[in-house]
Amino acid sequence: MNVLVINAGSSSLKFQVLEMSSGAVFLSGIVERIGLDQTQFHYERQGVKKSELVSFINHKEALLAIATIIQDLGRTIDTVAHRVVHGGEQFSSTTFITKEVKAKISELSALAPLHNPANLACIEVSELVFPHSNQIAIFDTAFHQTIPEKAYRYAIPARFYELEKIRQYGFHGTSHKYVSQQAISHLGLKSSKIITIHLGNGCSMTAVKDGKSIDHSMGYGPINGLIMGTRSGDIDQAIIFYMMDNLGYSSKEVQELLQKESGMKGLTGFSDLREIEEQALLGNKMCQLALDMNAYRVKKVIGSYVAVLNGLDALVFTAGIGENSGFMRELICQELDFFGITIDSAINAIRSKEIRNVGTLDSRVPILVIPTNEELEMAEQAYELTK
């Protein structure tokens, strides 16, 4: 059984073709900076790696290019597994995609405007290109359905939850689930208190107790919490009222600003952390301030989740920035020794694709860097559904 996994982020599209009985990966890759200058297309096909500069203006163009490569391989795709960011309360598990499911994904696009439209576009292109394949949706929100009511409810009139289901949902669930399970296995834990830190263009953190999500930094939509590439993260609501009432912004304009023009891009003019780190090293004070703000926000959430968990067995970094930026990991872990978190600068600077502990020998809490494999997790969930 061949499974094509489509993992569409806000400005990226990761993909894999897996043969489930053997676990072999026949094709894998990523399209980065979709819709930006110098879109990068990296893929490995039958052991041969290629990188190209392309000009994909949206996720549809990227998926059509991937489909062409698959057709050239002569592979039959039995199942396509799609990452969908927002599933609301309607979808708490992996599901077959129907017209009704697509309609609900579209309806929920208002809550995840950078993601659900891209997810839906990939589904619709996939249905055309692979008309005889199972189309399966794996929802980012599903892992967080175990968050208790005292954590997911907002202190607004109850009717907004009862009638409109306004509550915290949580995101990046496939990644948080995968790396927390890897941490539990790696450390041989029977009971566990883990904080997972997913740092990419989108960023989030989860408090995971005994393998279950019990709190999360994002909320009703994937905009709040940590500072992200183009998203503001947490902001005082009074600022939004001021922008609308005194500066003449419409609600649509405010949403556009907070989703696409804020975060690291709003502070520095750059949304790619690699460029921001380079500029900071060259003496750009705004870039250094943005990095400090980013790390400070993560540190605050670590502290709150240690309290929520009443302890900590492991701190886990994952995703593009979390896995590859030793600079950010060190900035975040500085002055956390009260919690037993001390990072080894030399080990932390080493790049690796393996699970590794970058903490010092006397760090009471392991600091794990775990490459996320959302694609494998998604493929396994889709395979279980179609067996």
Class by SSE composition: alpha/beta
Largest sheet: 8 strands, mixed
Average pLDDT: 92
Summed up, the helix count is 15
Please report the distance between the alpha carbons of the first and last residues.
10 Å
Shape: globular
**Fraction of residues in helices?**
25-40%
Count of individual beta strands: 14
The side-by-side strand order for the widest beta sheet comes to: 5-4-3-2-1-6-8-7
| pLDDT < 50 stretches | none
The helix-strand sequence is EEEEEHEEHHEHHHEEEHHHHHEHHHEEH
Rg calculated over all Cα atoms? 20 Å
Quote the beta fraction: 15-25%
Question: Could you outline the blueprint of secondary structure elements for this entry?
Answer:
Blueprint (H helix, E strand, L loop, with lengths): L1 E7 L4 E7 L4 E9 L6 E7 L2 E7 L4 H15 L5 E6 L10 E2 L2 H9 L8 H14 L4 E6 L9 H4 L6 H6 L8 H15 L5 E7 L3 E7 L2 E5 L20 H9 L5 H10 L2 H6 L4 H9 L3 H25 L4 E5 H6 L1 H8 L11 H4 L7 E2 L9 E3 L4 H13 L1
Parallel strand pairs: 1-6, 6-8, 9-12, 12-14
Antiparallel strand pairs: 1-2, 2-3, 3-4, 4-5, 7-8, 9-10, 10-11, 13-14
